[in-house]
Design goal:
Rossmann fold, alpha/beta, 10 strands, binds D-glutamic acid, 6-stranded parallel sheet, 4-stranded parallel sheet, 16% strand, 280 residues
Length: 280
């Protein structure tokens, strides 16, 4: 089992920002990545739709023999971590906006969070803010369309720059000294964000923390292989493979083989015959 792959998924290629930390920290592990590009962005979808996608993808990954599943998507974690964990035979790690590390990092107590509509409107985010955001001024900014810009490879275009300027304006106006990226697509925008914010603002990307958590979990369960070999990467997508191949070229250093994502039906609910008592 320790030589089994780790499964990672996102609505599209955003989760590669988490995958690169996993690959750096756990170079011997085989990785399977699912880009659910046919259903991206998740940010505008209902929690119900996201749960169905997340459960189906987790079924696929565990069917491939994965020993651990990483939901490399804040929106999917917010909507579906509970149901996915309940149904998965292997441990599931999710990602959530870095409210806690941001609250610890801020010096002036003003923090900005960028995330999707789905994430920021979720009950899970409300709990996170109640737990870790009470002592700080938190500006939670919904970033409609921003993940799409990254999906389209537009990480430096004028359109992305003006969208980011608009979303960062309220955060800058309040004088935030810390910004947490609550969507796994956004780390690919760090150079542009840094250019707009200037050098004084701490930017928090939780990808590294997620990789460290994966390592801890594997060690705890004795599932981390003790080997010098180099792990491989297989990518599956529900979307257009040529597009994903181009995205991989832009966002991933290294080789990967690319496959279509098969659809996996939910397990049948066992039929329970109703007991009919004989007439007295
Ligand atoms: N990368 C995802 C996240 O972390 C989802 C973006 C989207 O599909 O809207 O939230």
């Amino acid at each position: 089992m320790s030589s089994a792959p780790i499964g990672v998924f996102d609505s599209g290629i955003g989760g590669l920002s988490v995958l690169r930390h996993l690959h750096r920290l756990l170079p011997c592990e085989d990785l399977i990545y699912v880009a659910d590009s046919a259903h991206a962005p998740y940010g505008d979808r209902s929690p119900h739709e996201i749960q169905a996608r997340a459960e189906e993808i987790t079924r696929f990954l565990t069917g491939q023999g994965c020993k651990l599943v990483v939901m490399a998507c804040n929106t999917a974690t917010a909507a579906a971590a509970g149901t996915v964990r309940a149904a998965s035979p292997v441990p599931v790690i999710g990602v959530e906006p870095g409210v806690k590390p941001a609250a610890m990092a801020t010096r002036n107590g003003v923090v900005g969070i960028l995330a999707t509509r789905g994430t920021l409107q979720s009950a899970k985010y409300g709990h996170l803010v109640n737990r870790f955001g009470r002592e700080i001024t938190l500006i939670s900014q919904i970033c409609d369309g921003l993940a799409d810009q990254v999906e389209a490879g537009q990480t430096t275009s004028p359109a992305t720059r003006s969208l980011l300027r608009r979303y960062l304006a309220p955060i800058m106006e309040r004088g935030a000294d810390t910004l947490a990226l609550g969507c796994t697509h956004y780390p690919f925008l760090i150079p542009l964000i840094r250019e707009i914010l200037g050098p004084g603002v701490t930017i928090i990307d939780t990808g590294g923390a997620v990789a460290r958590q994966a390592l801890r979990q594997l060690r705890e369960e004795n599932l981390h292989p003790d080997t010098q070999r180099h792990g491989g990467l297989s990518v599956f997508t529900s979307g257009d493979r040529e597009r994903v191949a181009r995205q991989m070229e832009a966002f991933w250093e290294g080789a990967a083989d690319l496959h279509p994502l098969p659809s996996i039906a939910p397990p049948a609910i066992p039929f329970q015959a109703e007991k009919i008592s004989p007439p007295a």
